[in-house]
Amino acid sequence: MLIYIILVIILVLSLLLLFSNVGVRLVFESELRMWVKVGFLRVQLYPIPERKKKTAKRKKKVKEAKRDSRSEGKRTERKITFEAVWQLIIELTPVLLAAMEHTRKGMRIRCLKLHLTISDRNPAIAAQRYGKMNAVIWPLIAAIENAVTVEQRNVRLDLDFSLHKTRANGEIFITMRMYRGIHIFLADGRRMLKLVLDFMKAAKVDQDHRSMTIKKPTDDTAA
């Protein structure tokens, strides 16, 4: 009898978890930040928050920080170009729309904010990029609003020839039931994750190749 009671309790808790609201909040400014909210629980996924250090491990952490600061100059950052981001948008758009079609009105976008300022050292290239982004962003937003409920939207695309560099900041907050999130991940989530990981890998390979071509003349001159 006790086993049946335990199974019923587990079943009820599982159902409550599956039908609980799950929220994902993304904020991108100078860096990307990501939170996940399940019921009243809110967890920061990226960047990973630092844990409280114990007094016994402080010296070890300080030594590691000094070692990292010395090797910081040797590290290479990812090179993300407009063309790479544009290709990622083109590849992600059909997958994203298919995922929203699976949920229909079960997904809610509580907040959708985007401020994109297009710029480049070459004004002609900046104007061309501005036209491309307008041709994609506004139809994409219209398709999103037709597929899911968008409660708050604030999207701006500007063209500025004086910045010489494209800037973007925004925020998106999505809520849905847990079982719908599992459905999206099983149906389309793995494909979206693969596209993003391939994008980041290609950016790193591009930067590594660039750093090798820059270092080669230095080695020859040193020899």
Descriptive overview:
Mean pLDDT is 76; it is low at 52-56, 72-78 and 207-223. This protein starts with a helix and ends with a helix. The longest helix is centred in the C-terminal third of the chain and has 45 residues, at 178-222. Helix 3 (82-103) packs parallel to helix 4 and helix 3 runs antiparallel to helix 5 (178-222). Strands 1, 2, 3, 4, 5, 6 and 7 form a seven-stranded mixed sheet that branches. It contains five helices and seven strands; from the N terminus they run αβββααβαβββα. With 223 residues, the protein is an alpha/beta fold. It is elongated.
List keywords for this structure.
single chain, about 220 residues, alpha/beta, 7 strands, about 55% helix
Low-confidence stretches: 52-56, 72-78, 207-223
Morphology call? elongated
Helix content: 40-55%
Strands, total number: 7
> Which percent band covers the strand fraction?
15-25%
Specify the biggest β-sheet.
7 strands, mixed
Average pLDDT level: 76
Helix and strand composition category? alpha/beta
- Terminal CA distance reads 82 Å
String of helices and strands? HEEEHHEHEEEH
Gyration radius from CA atoms, angstroms: 23 Å
SS element count, helices: 5
Give a summary of the structure in a few sentences.
The protein has 223 residues and is an alpha/beta fold. The chain has helices at 2-18, 58-70, 82-103, 123-147, 178-222, and strands at 21-28, 32-38, 41-46, 108-118, 149-150, 153-159, 167-177.
